[in-house]
Write a structure and sequence with these properties.
By secondary structure, the chain is of the alpha/beta class. The protein has three domains: 1-65, Arc Repressor Mutant, subunit A, CATH 1.10.10; 86-162 and 269-309, Periplasmic binding protein-like II (D-Maltodextrin-Binding Protein, domain 2, 3-Layer(aba) Sandwich), CATH 3.40.190.10; 163-268, 3-Layer(aba) Sandwich (D-Maltodextrin-Binding Protein, domain 2). The chain is built from ten helices and 15 strands. A hairpin with a 4-residue loop joins strand 1 and strand 2 (57-59). Helix 1 packs across helix 2 (20-27), helix 1 (5-17) crosses helix 3 (31-45) and helix 1 crosses helix 4. The chain is globular and about 70 Å long.
């Protein structure tokens, strides 16, 4: 059995973006060429690797098993080609990142823009997602998540200061409904909640009391996967909401939002750039790691966290 490696590369692209058209645009080929490549793989294997409907594309069980094995190898091949085409110490090629939507400082624009300017031969492909998945199997070079949810076998480098998750509301809402004095009172309040995707349950709000962590299953009147909308809804008086302190910093400075339940919101380790342990780290990824370390040192001030700025 011999499967065209380029066909496997196309299949991996379709699986990443869940669309033939988007994969074609990303690869710079026609949609027909993408379909033909996927068909080649399926014909060679004698089984379907993608499940297609008029609205979506998803991997079959066989497709998931295939890509779980071949995606790391494909990444290694692309790195080998890039290293051969350019000097080994010259950062170049495509750098794919999966970044949490709440990693505010990393996604500020300044860090990534300065990296792009410093390394023009590196092309960034950034997917902002809060889904938890195997970045290696999905074809990503690295990811950015809160330290507490990163797998232990990953190398993790801090790219933010210590974080804190807080509960906020507009002054008008607090004047009308009162401020809760304990998290268990949240069930009696209007809340704006968060969920990572449509097929997951709303996030249970997490707190700590006397060194013991606990969660409250609030019943949100509004649930979304967009933190920007959560901020807007809270500012408009829709109710209490929860998120990272740096997300709400501008609103807290302006006075359009106020913190409640602060004593039950301990600090968190923060966000980390993580990637699989490799004997030889690609120059493009090493460049990002070093750049992120320098940017964190030069631009983030510890007092910002303490002041909610």
């Amino acid at each position: 059995m011999s499967i065209d490696l380029n066909a496997l590369r196309v299949l991996a692209a379709v699986a990443r973006v869940r669309s033939f058209r988007a994969a074609a645009d990303q690869l710079g080929v026609t949609r027909s060429a993408v379909s033909q490549s996927v068909r080649k793989v399926e014909d060679e294997l004698g089984t379907a690797v993608l499940r297609r409907t008029t609205r979506s594309v998803a991997l079959t069980e066989a497709g998931e098993a295939l890509l779980e094995r071949v995606a790391p190898a494909l990444a290694e091949i692309e790195e080998a080609i890039a290293a051969t085409a350019t000097p080994e110490d010259t950062p170049s090629g495509l750098l794919r990142l999966a970044v949490s939507s709440i990693a505010e400082s990393f996604l500020s624009g300044d860090l990534l823009a300065s990296f792009a300017a410093a390394y023009p031969r590196v092309r960034l492909d950034i997917v902002v997602t809060d889904a938890e998945f195997d970045i290696v199997a999905a074809g990503f070079d690295a990811g950015v998540r809160l330290g507490e949810v990163i797998e232990r076998d990953m190398i993790a480098v801090p790219v933010s200061l210590e974080q804190r998750q807080i509960v906020v509301a507009a002054p008008a809402y607090l004047a009308q409904a009162g401020a809760p004095v304990h998290p268990r009172e949240l069930t009696r309040h209007r809340c704006v909640g968060w969920r990572s995707s449509a097929d997951t349950a709303p996030y249970r709000w997490e707190f700590s009391e006397d060194g013991q962590d606990f969660a409250v299953a609030v019943d949100p009147e509004v649930t979304t996967n967009d933190m920007a909308l959560m901020v807007k809804m809270a500012r408009a008086g829709a109710g209490l909401t929860i998120g990272m302190a740096e997300t709400f910093a501008p609103s807290l400075r302006e006075g359009t939002l106020r913190i409640v339940l602060e004593d039950f919101c301990p600090p968190l380790p923060g966000f980390f750039l993580f990637y699989p342990s490799r004997r030889h780290l690609p120059a493009k990824l090493r460049a990002l790691v070093d750049h992120a370390k320098g940017w964190r040192r030069d631009h983030l001030r510890p007092e910002s966290f303490a002041n909610g700025e």
